[in-house]
Design a protein that fits this description.
Elements lengths: L13 H14 L12 H8 L3 H13 L3 E4 L3 E4 L10 H8 L5 H25 L2 H20 L2 H17 L6 H16 L10 H13 L2 H11 L2 H9 L3
Antiparallel strand pairs: 1-2
Helix pairs in contact: 1-3, 4-8, 5-8, 5-9, 5-10, 6-7, 6-9, 7-8, 9-10
Length: 238
Amino acid sequence: MTHFSLVDDSRRKIHVHVARQIARKILSGELQPNDKLPCEMVLCDALGVSRTALREATKLLSGKGLIESKTKVGTKVLPRNYWHFLDPQLIDWMESLDDNQVFLQQFLGLRKAIEPEACALAAAHATEEQKSVLTTIFQEMVMAANRFDFNDWTIHDHLFHKTIFLATDNQFYIPFGNILTTIFKQFIDHSAEGGRFCLEEHRAIYDAILAGDVAGARTASRVLLNDENQKLSLVVNG
């Protein structure tokens, strides 16, 4: 039987607390697709919240494709193909799971499929202004790596990748890059914790984009995203 804990009404809205707790049980597999959630009365009692808060929470979860509620039938967990994996809030809930390695590995696969082409497009289409911005960001990354300043590296690494998506001259990459900022944090924020910032791999991407080297930018991105470079981020929470 799935057990729920009383919700701590501290900083967030109560219904977000409730949604997060239920979502974590779904994301962790404690609640499986097609499992039914306990009835409202049971859930309200277990969580210590009102029916209004619970209904707002279920509405939030429904909007993310995690559950489906039907009158006289109840609420059930939906199959994974309905889940909105690129929803920033859902990603945040994934990050706090005890075992999030499957999600992280799958996201790395997505990055491998998309980011090299984004770098290639940036090499082909980046404006002088965008190259100037990328230069400033990369210089900050170099200084952060030399100081072993993990926090400063993280900030500018995020900006580095976001700027590349903006420089693709493809409007569909721009919102995708914005959405992925939250997901990038699951990899990038931890990639330097083992003592390695992958500075030279980023330098290769930067140099290729500034030189307009499409093939070189694509190849450099693939090198950055290989499993050897990314393995640090996959073990920090293990």
